Amino acid sequence: MISLFSLPGGMELMLIFFVVLLMFGGKKIPELAKGLGKGIREFNNARSSIESEIKAGMKEVEEKAPSAKDEKSA
After folding, report:
1. How far, in Å, are 17, 22, 26, 32, 48 from residue 35 at the CA level?
2. Where are the domains of the chain?
3. If pLDDT is split at 50, 70 and 90, which confidence band does 68 have?
4. What is the C-alpha separation between 48 and 20, in angstroms, rounded?
5. Do residues 51 and 43 make contact, with C-beta atoms less than 8 angstroms apart?
């Protein structure tokens, strides 16, 4: 089955790179890549921070709530 939203191939990537080069020039591309890298890094840091907070909250709830084994023996 042919997908409408497939990844771009080699020719498409070269065309996209050429258009970006024309729009921003050779001197701006490293700055844009650096900014993109910082954004991705901040996103990943925020995602891992949220994951750790959720896991800590779940662990706290599990410790406070009586387990099913404790309820059966009582």
Report:
1. 17, 19, 15, 5, 20
2. 10-73
3. low
4. 32
5. no
Structure tokens at 47: 């995602």
Per residue in 26-56, pLDDT (tens digit) is: 888 889 889 999 999 999 999 999 999 999 9
- Tokens found for residue 22: 């024309």
- Give DSSP secondary structure letters for 11-71: HHHHHHHHHHHHHH-TTTHHHHHHHHHHHHHHHHHHHHHHHHHHHHHHHHHHHHSPPHHHH
Contact 26, 33 (CB under 8 A): no
